[in-house]
């Protein structure tokens, strides 16, 4: 038995969510221990957001230069893959977490390295890297912020085939000659975009009939057109049934249509599973390997007495870094307020509840073209029982977009709640739309009335003039 330490709050998992939750709780007056088994900073910093966006930014920079007569003529070559990978390595901090560890120390949070497991109510045991064991007790709360791992399908031959998950796809040091990508979600389309631009022959194998099936249809269509224009072989209605690696290293993927696809690497971008299989969930009455459902203050709904919280990917509310950080801020402050006996503000959009998770989640997909969306799609709004109207506009008709790129192709949709005359969802798809998104997020989260949006005048000639066009189209 090792040492036993006591803190107000023990956080398991030092990704973006755990760091923010620990910081807010500490700022609210609590002593905090943060347990991390790999690198402080989590998936996002080393194998997800940062390295993937570092791979994709040069793709967009080169594509932008090629979109405009005058600059197009002066950019003949391809990406310098070695330089892109080296810049990516820098954005992944060369897979060292010293910077984040320093930040934790400066924020007054104690780092405990090792694998954490719940051990009954308000107790966490940590298997430390030196083989030791520490027990941490929490006076007020334990917050699980352990994130997710790649979910792989159960396919014959997969175990021995050394396939890529998102980790290899974001950290690989060499460009594969032939890359098969399985999946039609965000990881699949972003990584197909990046590795195609870096020189791989990419085949995208999608079991459904569209890409990005949680966004408006036109967005997936524009991304699929963009991938095909870049030379990606996009195939719909295809499933992998088995695979194996030949002695010469070639990977052979058997497809349901009876054909066989040879590749050098295969990325399985087939979703995520919660990192809760080896977390001692059974000691607190939860099912190992399951997502941890919470209320809007972050409390695990199935655990009595309200001491267990879950934030970020692991609660399955919205698998995005910015939403995890938002939950970290809201839940961390709620934990501190409860501990101090301070009143909470539980009304929708109040200080102590993560209301935006339900109504105003923004996401940018960094493909070419980009997709930027917030809130509900038309279908989601209808499914929620709202009386809505979709207002669409061809982004190519906006002066700022025409200046941005010759033959600009893109589209915008605003979903208007007709009863309240506010926007409940906005989607942009086109080059350069990522930075437009926050205007839409403010409109949706702020429930800004259309009558007032009419007075929010977009600068001429920017792509944001699409706001004016959408409102004019709505008003007729
Ligand atoms: C390829 C890819 C690209 C992405 N790009 C974006 C993007 O551009 N924008 C965006 O918003 N989101 C993006 N995401 C999603 C984003 O990475 C996640 O939403 C985010 O990392 C979730 O943060 P988290 O802190 O909840 O979990 P994580 O980042 O997964 O961190 C969890 C931490 O907990 C630790 N841990 C787990 N179990 C234990 C244990 N038992 N004991 C101790 N420590 C433990 C892990 O080591 C890890 O450090 C991307 C995801 C992928 C796969
Ligand atoms: N730019 C960003 O914001 C960004 C980038 C990457 C990832 N993310 C987040 O990370 C999370 C994970 O992304 P993801 O793309 O791995 O998951 P996803 O759930 O978005 O997509 C998974 C895809 O795999 C397919 N699939 C699932 N099982 C399959 C199987 N057995 N065979 C074939 N296809 C299968 C699904 O139909 C879907 O198309 C997402 O929630 C996403 O929001 C965000």
UniProtKB/TrEMBL annotation:
GO terms for molecular function: dihydrolipoyl dehydrogenase (NADH) activity; flavin adenine dinucleotide binding. Its cofactor is FAD. Keywords: FAD, Flavoprotein, NAD, Nucleotide-binding. GO terms for biological process: 2-oxoglutarate metabolic process. Residues 7-324 form the FAD/NAD(P)-binding domain. Pfam families: Pyr_redox_2, Pyr_redox_dim. FAD binds at residues 53, 116, 313. Residues 361-467 form the Pyridine nucleotide-disulphide oxidoreductase dimerisation domain. Disulfide bonds join 44-49. NAD(+) binds at residues 183-190, 271. Binds 1 FAD per subunit. Signal peptide: none annotated. Gene3D superfamilies: 3.30.390.30, FAD/NAD(P)-binding domain. Belongs to the class-I pyridine nucleotide-disulfide oxidoreductase family. This is Dihydrolipoamide dehydrogenase. It comes from Kitasatospora cineracea.
